[in-house]
Design goal:
By secondary structure, the chain is mainly α. It contains four helices and no strands.
């Protein structure tokens, strides 16, 4: 293994460990606002992974770039779904069925 690859693996493992520790310490009440804020970062990740996949330096870089695109898009879509669900919890329900139940 080359020295550059070893340093890259070392940085990846440390980033994964630190990320896990930081996320696990966040109270559940703050997870949803942080998720919506991280969508911007995930959007940047999508752009970077598209560049990595499109440069075509070799078959492995294209495959890894495509996997990165897929995972980043899953993260973006999931973040938007969670944010939409969170915002839906704060909407007032004005349907007639709710009004009827309140009157009874």
């Amino acid at each position: 293994m080359t020295e550059t690859l070893m340093v890259s693996i070392y940085v990846f493992v440390l980033a994964a460990f630190v990320g896990f520790e930081v996320i696990s310490k966040v109270p559940p009440l703050l997870h949803t606002p942080l998720m919506s804020g991280s969508n911007a970062i995930s959007g940047i990740t999508v752009v970077g992974s598209l560049i990595a996949a499109g440069e075509g330096h070799g078959g492995l870089s294209v495959i890894l770039g495509m996997i990165a695109v897929i995972f980043a898009m899953i993260n973006v879509v999931g973040g938007f779904m969670v944010t939409d669900r969170m915002l839906g919890m704060f909407k007032q329900d004005t349907s007639k069925s709710k009004q009827i139940k309140k009157a009874e």
